Amino acid sequence: MTFNRLGTITVRVIRKGLPVRSNRRLRWVTIPIAIALVAVLAGCTQVQLRGFLPGTDGITNHTDRVTGLWVTSWIVLLAVGLVTWGLIIWAAIAYRRRRGQTGLPVQLRYNLPIEIFYTIVPLILVVGFFAFTARDQNVIETKTKNPDVTISVYGKRWAWDFNYLKEGPDGKGVYSKGVQATEIDNGKNVDYSKLPVLYLPVGKSVEIDIHSRDVIHSFFVVDFLYKKDMIPGKTNYMFFTPLKTGTYQGKCAELCGEYHSLMLFQVKVVEQAEYDSYLQSLAAAGQTGTLGSEYNSNQNQPGNKAPTND
Predict the structure, then answer these.
(1) Is residue 287 part of a domain?
(2) Helix (H, G, I), strand (E, B), or coil: what is residue 165?
(3) How much of the chain, in percent, has pLDDT values that exceed 70?
(4) Helix intervals (H) in the chain
């Protein structure tokens, strides 16, 4: 205790065995963690809450599940990152070389607890990611019994054919034949009015049978957050229920040749009345039956040959 010139008392408290610089270490460790927490909690937009994924909530019966898996995975990974970065910064500050120190610090070898820790924790993370991914994928891939709508999709260089099965006269189906996207504005844009369009009724269960006429493609509706490869000689399937009306953009997600970027289409989710009207318009235009595997151009598959005009 000391007296200064103004007569006030100054009390100095000395904590035995605790260096003053320990508070400085703690401060330097907590600053980056605090900054990260402020950035995260400063108010997220809806896009950020969805992990910057395209679309909105509830477009299909599967999109929220995909979003949940994606966002939760990033939260876990960011938490691991914060702990890792914090430990790195703390170690760099706490064990830095100080003035007057020479030589090497005490070296640690064969620290069994630490080695078990950094082996078990990553293993738990990997197993956890695998388990939750397998759970959600199993739900998404589960076959829908007796779907309301069955559509056969053929990918071809560089467009799409859509067959609406069990529709039209005598239930023989109706089809829509697509063409490659048309470039406009000197190749800066495409004419969306001429893209192939896949119509789907809102609130109805859908099965899509996916085929390729030539090379490997991939059927991808961006806002549906799911895609499926189209492999020559193999049929893949997608099962979902569209829940929101609207127009959604689709594309080929597998590099398939020179005009891959123009292999575009649109999906229109509409009310049942509009869907029925569209199918009737295809039948009225004479587009009845289906465009099946007889138009495949891949001659490497058994029994396939190039289509002719005969």
Answers:
(1) yes
(2) coil
(3) 82
(4) 21-41, 46-49, 63-94, 112-141, 272-284
